[in-house]
């Protein structure tokens, strides 16, 4: 840096300095710090622009390296230069200040440096803004102020009043650019300012809007209000009552720009203040609908009114005359229409509960505006309609239409009736020149068939020409073609094939051309469409007259696909889709391609050997092997099966599953090939992956039918050992268990030597008899018993060997024997065994609990096999004996498993018996009685449900709680005949939420939770009356807390805890199933109380907070400050030093859970701007223990997000 440097040297030297500063290792002593800082500040005034730019870049790394007072020197110099009269110096200094602000540590880290620097800058900036001498200085200063408030607003709390008083006058500045930047700065200010400053600002705006001095400033004030709402909607809510009438008033003033700003303000209110804007939504909708068509300077002649065209022309003369002074460039009305469309979009996206109303008023209006002449506006109109469709699409499949039981107009039926109108409007747009418009049309059609599959069946002839038009259009972009193909694909998948048969001749040429397109994305979409085109109905292969004949197109489709299939140097996605498409072609049309088949199959064989394409090829081969056309795969099998067998060794689960499915369906395999596969099976049969085991078992069952001889080698082999090990696994259940039973039955049927009934029986039950080891898990006994029963059913002549009476039998042998008896008796009538009843009743008095419950299960199951013989016996025993609990369990088994017709005659006697026991003192017994009552009610709901309702008046609280629990067992997640009856009277059962007895109220909550979870439609209409009672149960009741003396210690017991827990569980369930019917703010009040409650309830409410942060972020944001406090309290609580270990563990668990809620809250974009939240964040980062928890949870949540993105 010599005194008269050559600019190039200066440039190089600065560049070297820059490189040095960016290294972490650099350390400067005080003296060199001072020199470097002085030098760089001097270089900022260099004549050479390049050198200046580099010097500014050095500021960034410099700020974090030098001491605090040096940073202040830098800031001071930069602020002074900002006011200089040299424009270039001003510009470079303002860039410098922004760089410095950007480098400061974030407010949440609590660093002192940031605070002192910001305070210094603020003072200089406010004076620069207030002096309205030089506009460009003002603009720069405002820009930096906005930047600083955005990044470090929380540190400047003491300056907020002075910042506000210097900003407000700028809203009336003669320069619009100044106003615009002032609004930006105010927007960032309201995110972090205290309440008093906020009130001042709002009062100022309201006063000015009330005075309405001139149009230009009014526009600015409306824009400012909208900006505040966008940045801090959660704070402006309480002022909307005053603001909205003013905005409505200005909307009616004839000034297009003002109108646009007013409607934009509405949009931000709707999006950011959902609760407070609620009473005004209808006003907003009607204003938007009015301005959506606002086009004062354009006369739409309706296309339908051709006959009155003549009259219209004569009336138009006076209109023509004024055209000379008017040019289209002055026409701002399109901005008003665009704002209206966007505002409607916001309303539709945020007010799910108004869907039926939207379909009545908004939907037709939007459809009418598809003809909008201004391209940008048209795109927004389409977007608003897309939002409407997305809102209509049922969120979870099991909630497909929560109001389906309410007959009448649901949003889906209303949409269905509007489809013709939508298609008519789109039909005209599909031939438009504009690419953007056509893309919008394709998006619309795609979303429409996603919401209503099959809705376009009758309209396909109208739409196909429009789609083909875009495919053939030479000028259209590749994106448009991709959208058109994707849309066509979705329509073909969601509609019946016959609807397209007439259009195949027209569709094949353009689609084939797209398959040959050089751009791989077009090819890959076109292959998907081709795959749909070749699906011909294979159910009736006899050529009937009306059936579709594909022969003319086979050649084209085959040729274009084979070309892509052969190509090696082609995109991965295209490779895969070409394989799938060719698989479909052979599956559906293979009988018409005798010459081409062998060659194509050889290509498939090549693709099998390639790691990238093997999975797709296995799927394609499975498809071909399953084709009703009986395609002959023998030429390739000798090579293919060993390859497939080797796939079973690979560590790729999807590949194993697909390969097993393929082997299962390939019927033409020879015994040699089978042996190769069998060698690979043992490691697949294990509890570590039940689904793979299930597929392997199902393959073995198929083998037992097709190649029984090859199973002979099982007798001593590994496969059987693996099977027996799997039977003993506690994880065996569901599909894998039934595959196991099927296999045992198929195996016994092959009558292979060494694998007969007794051999297999010995293998299964051996370990229990050898007494060397009792099985570790009860589930294993049940599985073995089921296998024994399956074998017995397959060989009815071999009698089961029963070892229950044998006095030498151990408990585990008895257990197995009883369970086996039950499983056999379930399907086979065992009444021919005379001593069965006594044997089982003796087992009731066994010392082992497991044998007792096995005996009660066995009695119930055997009764199912012969009701007339055993049911009366069970009932009589219940009346007379002392072992009611076990017998009632037998009865529950009978009611759950027997056929309805078999049980009908006994319903009355069972019902009477159960009622005698529903007032039993024992809660366990009452629960079994309730389950029996509930399941019995399902058999004859018309008579029994009203009876249950009658017992609600019973004087005994036990009886009432049994009845309410019984209702829980009548609710299931599948549609049932009882549903409409239940819907009418579930309200009466839920009235027990006001019952004086604690236990009855708790049971009522559990039943309500079950309904909300499994069939929300039962309770949606009752929420208005149920919610207040539900919320009432979340409160802590002093009178239910009592002190119990335990020796020298006093211990408090809260009898209301279980009740509160049940209530909070209901609230959590309602978030998933009935969110649209909740007043989220009332809901949040109770969540807030729960955050301060007992351990269990805190854990629940932390979970709720995390759900709420993603479901309704704007509401949570409005309450953020009140929610942060209890979270902070939980995280900073200390456990007493002499507490037991559990206390420490509980507190840790609570902290982690609270931190999870904090991390979830921080996913709401504006959350960290809240002063309380940022204070809490700096508290976390300064406490090593909390910081560690916080970081680990953030890592977990970000990796979980990545995973969910992978699977979606």
TrEMBL record:
UniProt KW Nucleus keyword: yes
Q: Where is this region: Disordered?
A: 302-330
**This protein's UniProt keywords:** Acetylation, Nucleus, Repeat, Ubl conjugation pathway
Q: What GO biological process terms does the UniProt entry carry, in alphabetical order?
A: SCF complex assembly
One Pfam match: TPR_CAND1
A GO CC term attached to the entry: nucleus
The answer, when asked if Mitochondrion is one of the entry's keywords, is no
What InterPro entries does the record tag this protein with?
Answer: ARM-like, ARM-type_fold, CAND1/CAND2, TATA-bd_TIP120
**Main localisation:** nucleus
List each copy of the TATA-binding protein interacting (TIP20) domain by range: 1018-1180
Subcellular locations according to the entry: Nucleus
Instruction: Name the protein family.
Output: Belongs to the CAND family.
Q: Record's PANTHER family?
A: TIP120
What this protein is called in its record is Cullin-associated and neddylation-dissociated 1
Source organism (scientific name) = Sander lucioperca
What is the primary gene name for this protein? cand1
């Amino acid at each position: 840096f010599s005194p008269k440097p050559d600019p190039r040297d200066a440039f190089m030297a600065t560049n070297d300095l820059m490189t040095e500063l960016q290294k972490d290792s650099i350390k400067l002593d005080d003296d060199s710090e001072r020199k470097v800082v002085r030098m760089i500040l001097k270089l900022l005034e260099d004549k050479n622009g390049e050198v200046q730019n580099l010097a500014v870049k050095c500021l960034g790394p410099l700020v974090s390296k030098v001491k605090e007072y040096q940073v202040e020197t830098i800031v001071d110099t930069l602020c002074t230069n900002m006011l200089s009269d040299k424009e270039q110096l001003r510009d470079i200094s303002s860039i410098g200040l922004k760089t410095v602000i950007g480098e400061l540590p974030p407010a949440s880290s609590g660093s002192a440096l940031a605070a002192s620097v910001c305070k210094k800058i603020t003072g200089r900036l406010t004076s620069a803004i207030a002096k309205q001498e030089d506009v460009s200085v003002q603009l720069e200063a405002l820009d930096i102020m906005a930047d600083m408030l955005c990044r470090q607003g929380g540190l400047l709390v003491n300056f907020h009043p002075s910042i506000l008083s210097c900003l407000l006058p700028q809203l009336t500045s003669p320069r619009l650019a100044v106003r615009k930047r002032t609004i930006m700065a105010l927007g960032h200010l309201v995110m972090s300012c205290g309440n008093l400053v906020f009130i001042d600002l709002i009062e100022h705006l309201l006063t000015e809007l009330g005075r309405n001095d001139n149009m230009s400033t009014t526009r600015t004030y409306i824009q400012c209000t909208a900006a505040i709402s966008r940045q801090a909607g959660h704070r402006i809510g309480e002022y909307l009552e005053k603001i909205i009438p003013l905005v409505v008033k200005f909307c009616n003033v004839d000034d297009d720009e003002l109108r646009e700003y007013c409607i934009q303000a509405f949009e931000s209110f709707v999006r950011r203040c959902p609760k407070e804007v609620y009473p005004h939504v209808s006003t907003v909708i009607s204003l938007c609908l009015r301005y959506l068509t606002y086009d004062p300077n354009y006369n739409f002649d309706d296309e339908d009114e051709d006959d009155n065209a003549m009259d219209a022309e004569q009336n138009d003369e006076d209109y023509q005359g004024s055209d000379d002074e008017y040019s289209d460039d002055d026409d701002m009305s399109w901005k008003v229409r665009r704002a209206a469309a966007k505002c409607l979009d916001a309303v539709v996206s945020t007010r799910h509960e108004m869907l039926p109303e939207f379909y009545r008023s908004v939907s037709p209006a939007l459809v009418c505006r598809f003809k909008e002449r201004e391209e940008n506006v048209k795109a927004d109109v389409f977007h608003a309609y897309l939002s409407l469709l997305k809102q209509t699409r049922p969120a979870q499949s099991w909630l497909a239409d929560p109001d389906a039981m309410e007959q009448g107009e649901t949003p889906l039926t209303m949409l269905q009736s509007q489809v013709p109108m939508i298609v008519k409007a789109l039909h005209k747009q599909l031939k438009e020149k504009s690419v953007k418009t056509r893309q919008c049309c394709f998006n619309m059609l795609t979303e429409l068939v996603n919401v209503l599959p099959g809705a376009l069946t009758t309209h396909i002839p109208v739409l196909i020409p429009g789609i083909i038009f875009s495919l053939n259009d030479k000028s259209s972009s590749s994106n448009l073609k991709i959208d058109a193909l994707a849309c066509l694909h979705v329509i073909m998948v969601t509609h019946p094939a016959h609807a397209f048969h007439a259009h195949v001749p027209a569709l094949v040429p353009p689609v084939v051309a797209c398959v040959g397109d050089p751009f791989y994305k077009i090819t890959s979409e076109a292959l998907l469409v081709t795959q749909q085109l070749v699906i011909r109905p294979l159910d009736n292969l006899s050529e009937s007259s009306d059936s579709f004949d594909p022969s003319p197109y086979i050649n084209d489709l085959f040729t274009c696909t084979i070309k892509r299939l052969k190509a090696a140097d082609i995109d991965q996605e295209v490779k895969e889709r070409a394989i799938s498409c060719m698989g479909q072609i052979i599956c559906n049309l293979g009988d018409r391609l005798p010459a081409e088949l062998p060659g194509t199959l050889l290509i498939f064989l090549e693709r099998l050997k390639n790691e990238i394409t093997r999975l797709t090829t296995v799927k394609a081969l499975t498809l071909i092997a399953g084709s009703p056309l009986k395609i002959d795969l023998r030429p390739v099998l000798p090579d293919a099966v060993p390859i497939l067998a080797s796939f079973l060794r690979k560590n790729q689960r999807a590949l194993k599953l697909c390969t097993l499915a393929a082997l299962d369906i390939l019927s033409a395999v020879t015994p040699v090939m089978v042996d190769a596969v069998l060698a690979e099976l043992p490691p697949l049969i294990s509890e570590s992956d039940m689904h793979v085991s299930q597929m392997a078992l199902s393959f073995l069952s198929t083998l037992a039918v097709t190649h029984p001889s090859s199973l002979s080698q099982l007798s001593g082999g590994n496969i059987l050992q693996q099977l027996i090990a799997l039977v003993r696994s506690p994880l065996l259940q569901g599909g894998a268990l039934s595959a196991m039973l099927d296999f045992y039955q198929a195996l016994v049927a092959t009558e292979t030597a060494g694998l007969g009934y007794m051999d297999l029986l010995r293998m299964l039950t051996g370990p229990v008899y050898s007494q060397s080891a009792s099985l570790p898990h009860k589930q294993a006994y049940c599985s073995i018993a089921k296998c024994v029963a399956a074998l017995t059913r397959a060989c009815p002549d071999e009698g089961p060997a029963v070892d229950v009476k044998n006095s030498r039998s151990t408990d585990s042998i008895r257990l197995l024997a009883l369970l086996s008896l039950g499983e056999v008796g379930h399907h086979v009538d065992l009444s021919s065994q005379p001593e069965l009843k006594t044997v089982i009743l003796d087992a009731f008095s066994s010392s082992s609990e497991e044998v007792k419950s096995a005996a009660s299960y066995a009695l119930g199951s055997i009764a199912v096999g012969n009701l007339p013989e055993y049911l009366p016996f069970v009932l009589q025993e219940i009346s007379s004996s002392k072992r009611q609990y076990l017998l009632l369990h037998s009865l529950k088994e009978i009611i759950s498993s027997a056929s309805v017709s078999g049980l009908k005659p006994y319903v009355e006697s069972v019902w009477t018996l159960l009622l005698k026991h529903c007032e039993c003192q024992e809660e366990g017994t009452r629960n079994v009685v309730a389950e029996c009552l509930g399941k019995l009610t399902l058999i004859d709901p018309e008579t029994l449900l009203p009876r249950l309702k009658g017992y609600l008046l019973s004087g005994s609280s036990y009886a009432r709680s049994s009845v309410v629990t019984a209702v829980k067992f009548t609710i299931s997640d599948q549609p049932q005949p009882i549903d409409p009856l239940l819907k009418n009277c579930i309200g009466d059962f839920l009235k027990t939420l006001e019952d004086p007895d604690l236990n009855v109220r708790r049971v009522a909550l559990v039943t309500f939770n079950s309904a909300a979870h499994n069939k929300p439609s039962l309770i949606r209409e009752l929420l208005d009356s149920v919610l207040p009672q539900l919320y009432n149960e979340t409160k802590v009741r002093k009178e239910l807390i009592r002190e119990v003396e335990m020796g020298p210690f006093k211990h408090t017991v809260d009898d209301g805890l279980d009740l509160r827990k049940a209530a909070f569980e209901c609230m959590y369930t309602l978030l998933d199933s009935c969110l649209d019917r909740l007043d989220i703010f009332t809901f949040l009040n109770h969540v807030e109380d729960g955050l301060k409650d007992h351990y269990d309830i805190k854990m629940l409410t932390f979970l709720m907070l995390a759900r709420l942060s993603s479901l309704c972020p704007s509401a949570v944001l409005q309450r953020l400050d009140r929610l942060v406090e209890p979270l902070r309290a939980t995280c900073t609580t200390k456990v007493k030093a002499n507490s037991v270990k559990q206390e420490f563990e509980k507190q840790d668990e609570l902290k982690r859970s609270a931190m999870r809620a904090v991390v979830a809250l921080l996913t709401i974009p504006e959350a960290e701007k809240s002063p309380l939240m940022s204070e809490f964040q700096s508290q976390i980062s300064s406490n090593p223990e909390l910081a560690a928890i916080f970081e680990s949870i953030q890592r977990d949540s970000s990796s979980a997000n990545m995973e969910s993105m992978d699977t979606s």
